[in-house]
Amino acid sequence: MDERDSLIDLLIHDLTGPLTIASTNINNLLNKEDRYGPLNDRQRNALKMSLRNAKKAQTFLHEMIEVYRSEEGLFRKEQCSVPQILRDSLFEALETFEPDTFEKIFTIERNEDFFQILRDSGIFVNIEGKYSTTPFIHDQKKLQQIIRNLITNALKYRKQRVDISIKGDEELIVMVEDDGSGIPQDKQNYIFKRFLCAQDKPKGNEKGLGFGLSCVKTIIETIQGNITLTSGEGKGTCFTVSIPPLNS
Ligand SMILES: Nc1ncnc2c1ncn2[C@@H]1O[C@H](COP(=O)(O)OP(=O)(O)OP(=O)(O)O)[C@@H](O)[C@H]1O
Ligand SMILES: [Mg+2]
């Protein structure tokens, strides 16, 4: 086992457990007051913030694990429901970056209500093509990581609006567009490099690590997919990803 492998093992085994325990316990404090005792508003808010951050760390860890698995050529071949993956990606992105919208959609079951609340929050979703009804053969966690990262960035940088469009009859095509300040031409290559952030922190958010897009790119390269970017200063940003089914 080389040094890198043992570092990855350490991350997987030694951080996953404690993070799971932290978030499970915070969750219990928040949602089982009959058992753990009542909370006042300040305590509840402090716990909610702790939970969001514990989840952020869990997501980051899982992200690293999936990148590592991709680099090693390790994929799970599964029947993936694209609408479900999109829903889960939206939940994850909103829970961390727009908790108010997340709380509104969290318990919604009817699809129409779900998409209406999203539209009211400036998030427009369109799913068409084969995979709106037929499973896509791929690795669910990796698909979710790609889609969640693009949505997260669009939410962080949008002024008002995010458009998510899914289509494709052979390859799966995912487009995520925002109306934010855009990425200048000369920065467009280096945003895919690990730990480099092309611009100052987005409004109202902590500065990111500059990790998300590099993970997306690594995964996409290992699955023979493609990612393109259309953007310009003041013109918003649109990422388009095409992904062939696994082993086609
Ligand atoms: N939709 C977007 N609009 C404007 N800039 C963007 C957009 N998406 C990415 N960027 C730029 O590309 C950089 C790299 O994106 P990336 O997702 O890798 O990192 P991050 O979002 O800053 O942090 P992390 O994803 O690790 O939390 C960002 O810091 C930002 O400068
Ligand atoms: Mg990001």
Properties at a glance:
single chain, 248 residues, alpha+beta, Heat Shock Protein 90, 2 domains, five-stranded mixed beta sheet, two-stranded antiparallel sheet, 51% helix, globular, binds adenosine-5'-triphosphate, binds magnesium ion
Compile the SSE list and pairings:
Blueprint lengths: L2 H29 L1 H4 L4 H31 L6 E3 L1 H16 L1 H7 L5 H10 L2 E5 L8 E3 L1 H18 L4 E6 L4 E7 L33 H11 L3 E6 L5 E7 L5
Parallel strand pairs: 2-4
Antiparallel strand pairs: 1-3, 4-5, 5-7, 6-7
Helix pairs in contact: 1-3, 3-8, 4-5, 4-7, 7-8
Adenosine-5'-triphosphate (ATP) binds next to helix 7 and helix 8.
Helical content (DSSP H or I, runs of 4+):
40-55%
Strand content: 5-15%
Q: What is the CATH topology descriptor of the largest domain? A: Heat Shock Protein 90
Termini separation:
33 Å
Numbering strands along the chain, what is their spatial order in the largest sheet? 2-4-5-7-6
**CATH homologous group name of the largest domain:** Histidine kinase-like ATPase, C-terminal domain
What's the SSE pattern?
HHHEHHHEEHEEHEE
- Global mean pLDDT: 89
CATH classification class of the largest domain: Alpha Beta
Number of helices: 8
- In total, how many beta strands? 7
Oligomer: single chain
Extract low-pLDDT stretches: none
Bound molecules: adenosine-5'-triphosphate, magnesium ion
What global shape is seen?
globular
Instruction: Please indicate the count of domains.
Output: 2
